[in-house]
């Protein structure tokens, strides 16, 4: 993509995705961000981005202060090189060992198959301004439901569990840290207009207050965007609107109050993916059809999602103490409809779950479908404190999160005004309407997750340039399920269980020179148990330990004016793999057990070099291995290698980039010794 960046006038660019126009108001400057926060961050991930040096217009680079393998994608690259609709998963996809699939075009559907070193979505944290977020049932994330790229500053990929101060339900496989953009120093307005392939159109406007002296240096901005697209896949439309607000208010010379809010609405036809038969018959870009008598009719396959995300932060430093606190909430409200089997393997007239005589047989002219909802609200608080004591620094903190989640799914008749369709016989002493609703339910449940974490660590400045950090974190997870119709079993269940775990970490960081550092890390990661442990008749029979990792990693980063290089090696032992105990399970009563684990190891490299005349070359590569301990078979969806290569240009008012990503062979099922083609 090439852009003539003429100040204070309209900008025009043409690329593969399409064309974009950006108009800047007379006082707005995209590169002049307000830095009104006092002191420094206590978040162990955010602090690394503050040491970013070297070429800025590159897909990612390492940090000189990182204590584990890490890649930083900065704001300049995000705003000047990626599609205007890109999700955070699109932003991170060029970093080492990352694999993600965006089948409908950048930002035009939820990303599929995102993984880091083979750890899948749900096995690693995603945070926004240091606050972990996600679905409490399985810790996955909805990439189109929060945060558009116009409001994103940096995206940092931590490939490891971090130290004791890294918080979240899934420190298991790493942390993706999404950092919001800062207000501009000067008042003004910025407009966005982009049009591209698949009739993709984005329109947006941002207004900055600038630094307001009469408000003690306060600053803020608000942005509003609308996005619409037909998508690459047939009949997979998306309409999205988003409003983001951020405000920073210095209260005095040592205390700053911050506030942010994001409101997002999505109306989409999410593709399920094609079968081989559909690809052969309908082509590789088939999503849905226009036939109202088909379960694959696009209007039967629809999502309506509304989300919000808010926090109030307070950062203060005095008398050697540094305090940081964030009180937050976020909500997700999803109503969805889908054909019973849009892939066509269970055509109209098939028997629904329940069987004969209680199962329902549709006629070939009736279209079976499902209606679902998932509504949740999280409320939480994160508190951090630090102080220099002796030859180092003490850091401590605590976090609390409570998510309430309501989930339901019903069998319905699409061609009978979406009427509920009972799949079981009468099983409740209730009204006929309530009985119909209840007997149509595949699931009808409320669940709650309480997460409590406490940590303490000490950074010992052992020698000039050498820091040794040791810490411990105590995690406590409590799940509560109150199901009228439990998923999988179809019976009622009320149950709760609590898990505790202590996690230790140790790392060494040595700054050989001002632009060269090395590090080594030993740390434990943790994954809170999935709600599916409760999708059984008697969950008390499943006495399993939470899944955990032990990480050994070492690496180095060198940053010069013309060249940047980062390299690392890693070895990860994943223990307590939770699987079904087939020997003791019976129909309707699945028993879970711990079965060994997985061993991960690999090598990762990335770097950039200034070629002169405005050109910069970027490359990264990784060789990855992930094998199940008990039989040495390959973990599904784990590439055996990845690589990225890019050529970027930035000179005067012009800039452009050409980038590619290679992902090695991987399996989609279990029981394979090595990836095909290795």
Defining key terms:
5-stranded mixed sheet; 678 residues; disordered N terminus; mainly beta
Can you describe what's shown?
The chain is 5% helix and 51% strand. It has helices at residues 46-49, 75-81, 88-92, 276-282, 432-439, and strands at 2-4, 11-14, 18-24, 70-73, 98-101, 112-116, 119-120, 125-128, 131-132, 152-158, 175-180, 188-196, 200-208, 219-229, 238-252, 255-268, 302-318, 321-339, 368-389, 392-413, 419-420, 441-463, 466-485, 493-513, 516-527, 547-559, 563-575, 578-580, 592-594, 597-612, 615-628, 641-651, 654-663. The protein has 678 residues and is mainly beta. Strand 26 (547-559) and strand 27 form a beta hairpin. The protein is globular and about 75 Å long. It has one domain (2-663): Maltoporin, Chain A (Beta Barrel). It starts with a strand and ends in a 15-residue tail after the last strand. The strands form four sheets. It has a 22-stranded antiparallel barrel. It has a five-stranded mixed β-sheet with strand order 4-10-11-8-9. The protein has a three-stranded antiparallel β-sheet with strand order 5-6-7.
């Amino acid at each position: 993509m090439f852009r003539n960046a003429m100040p204070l006038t309209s900008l025009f660019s043409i690329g593969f995705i399409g064309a974009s126009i950006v108009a800047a108001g007379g006082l707005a400057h995209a590169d002049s961000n307000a830095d009104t926060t006092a002191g420094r961050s206590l978040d162990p991930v955010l602090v690394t981005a503050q040491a970013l040096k070297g070429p800025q217009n590159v897909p990612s680079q390492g940090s000189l202060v990182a204590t584990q393998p890490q890649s930083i994608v900065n704001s300049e690259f995000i705003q000047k090189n990626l599609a205007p609709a890109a999700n955070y998963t699109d932003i991170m996809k060029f970093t080492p060992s990352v694999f993600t699939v965006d089948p409908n075009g950048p930002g035009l559907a939820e990303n599929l198959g995102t993984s880091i070193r083979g750890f899948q979505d749900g096995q690693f944290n995603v945070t926004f301004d240091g606050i972990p977020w996600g679905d409490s049932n399985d810790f996955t994330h909805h990439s189109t439901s929060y945060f558009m790229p116009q409001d994103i500053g940096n995206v940092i990929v931590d490939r490891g569990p971090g130290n004791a101060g890294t918080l979240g339900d899934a420190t298991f496989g790493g942390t993706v840290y999404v950092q919001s953009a800062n207000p501009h120093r000067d008042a003004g307005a910025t407009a966005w207009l982009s049009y591209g392939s698949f009739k993709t159109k984005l329109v947006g406007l941002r207004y900055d207050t600038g630094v307001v002296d009469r408000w003690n240096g306060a600053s803020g901005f608000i942005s509003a965007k609308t996005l619409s697209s037909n998508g690459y896949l047939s009949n997979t439309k998306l309409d999205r609107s988003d409003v983001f607000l951020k405000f920073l208010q210095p209260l005095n010379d040592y205390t700053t109050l911050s506030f942010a809010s994001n409101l997002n609405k999505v109306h989409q036809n999410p593709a399920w993916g094609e079968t081989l038969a559909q690809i052969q018959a309908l082509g590789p870009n088939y999503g849905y059809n226009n036939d109202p008598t088909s379960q694959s009719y696009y209007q039967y396959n629809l999502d309506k999602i509304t989300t919000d995300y808010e926090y109030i932060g307070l950062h203060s430093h005095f008398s050697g103490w540094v305090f940081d606190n964030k009180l937050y909430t976020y909500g997700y409200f999803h109503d969805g409809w889908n054909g019973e089997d849009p892939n066509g393997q269970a055509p109209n007239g098939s028997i629904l779950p329940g069987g004969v005589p209680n199962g329902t047989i549709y006629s070939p002219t009736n279209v079976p479908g499902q209606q679902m909802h998932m509504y949740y609200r999280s409320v939480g608080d994160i508190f951090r404190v630090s102080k220099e004591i002796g030859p180092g620094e003490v850091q401590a903190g605590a976090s609390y999160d409570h998510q309430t989640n309501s989930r339901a799914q019903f069998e319905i008749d699409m061609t009978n005004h979406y009427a509920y369709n009972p799949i079981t016989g009468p099983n409740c002493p209730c009204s006929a309407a309530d009985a119909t609703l209840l007997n149509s339910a595949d699931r009808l449940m409320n669940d709650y997750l309480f997460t409590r974490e406490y940590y303490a660590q000490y950074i010992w400045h052992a020698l000039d340039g050498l820091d040794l950090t040791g810490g411990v974190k105590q995690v406590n997870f409590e799940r509560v399920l109150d199901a009228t119709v439990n998923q999988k079993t179809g019976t009622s269940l009320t149950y709760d269980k609590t898990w505790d775990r202590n996690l230790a970490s140790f790392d060494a960081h040595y700054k050989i020179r001002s632009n060269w550092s090395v590090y080594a890390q030993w740390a434990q990661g943790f994954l809170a148990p999935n709600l599916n442990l409760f999708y059984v008749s008697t969950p008390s029979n499943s006495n399993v330990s939470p899944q955990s990792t032990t990480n050994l990693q070492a690496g180095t980063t060198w940053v010069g004016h013309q060249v940047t290089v980062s390299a690392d090696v890693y070895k990860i032992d994943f223990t307590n793999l939770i699987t079904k105990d087939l020997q003791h399970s019976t129909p309707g009563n699945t028993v879970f057990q711990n079965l060994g684990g997985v061993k991960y190891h690999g090598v990762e490299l990335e770097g950039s070099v200034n070629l002169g005349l405005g050109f910069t070359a970027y490359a990264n590569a990784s060789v990855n291995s992930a094998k199940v301990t008990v039989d040495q078979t390959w973990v599904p969806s784990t590439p055996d290698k990845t690589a990225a290569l890019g050529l970027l240009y930035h000179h005067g008012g012009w800039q452009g980039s050409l980038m590619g990503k290679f992902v090695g062979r991987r399996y989609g099922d279990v029981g394979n010794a090595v990836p095909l083609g290795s």
